[in-house]
User: Fold this.
Amino acid sequence: MVIPPLHWQQRINRQEQSMKRLTSKKPLRSSSTRHQPMSSASPPKTCERQFALQVQLRLHTPSIYGVIDAIENDTLMVYPTDVDFSTVLNCNDPVGDDSEMEIEIVDRATLPVSIREWLCVGVQTITAVGPDKDGPGTFGSYRSNIHRVLFTDPSYRAPGPAAHSGIISVSREMISGPTDEVTRDAFRFVVAHELVHAFHAMRFLVPAVMDWNTFYRVALDEGDKNWMAQEILECHSLALDNYRQESELAEVRAFWPSNADRWFNAFAQYAEDLQRRQGTEPQVMLRGGAASESQLAE
Assistant:
């Protein structure tokens, strides 16, 4: 996988796949208020982080990179660093007492970036886990601490994207099962599904990496619009997690138009075959979302 040269405080180590070097500056917190300007006598703290994608699936590593290489639409539209999230999230008040609030997302993601170039910011590890980790019947998951590093309690400044950790897990049952073409395509669909979860997170992570100070100060309004960003991220994932439905297929098809239908049908067949063999229906097909630091460290 070829990574093009990067811009502004980012360098590439060509000995690694999908790697970036990020340097972000974070002002010292004031003892009185987070809005107080930084004193000229207080130098900024510097946090340096190197992002790299590592695949820990041994014999399945070529299959993982095969899914990444098969991405046909490599362009991901992310939010600009100075986006106003209040113009992205529209909340309509419920009509009756039993009605739920309606949320509408206005498309303000207008900055195009390369998925392959920025993927290691959204996910750093792809590995396998047993059923005791993600629960029985879970074929894959994407776990991220984005809520803890970008969308934290607004009473203090968030750590920023340098502290982000994203992990894609695939069930050991799937990679240790039959090796027929249906199973291989089902495996590819699981990987693609979880990658799309990472893409959704990257809509926020990429601009945060590009210019964390502006993203935090303007887009997140120094934390006051964190809840809006969280709602937007969750809405982005709703269609994807509508399992085995047309909306899920459409989310994957947006990036793999030539392969999505075949992979989707193979996964449906794989799940049905597994149900017949076990006599039960899997409780959860796929899973994506945020996790705490303790969960990521387990």
Remarks:
- Residues 1-41, 94-99, 291-298 have pLDDT under 50 and may be disordered.
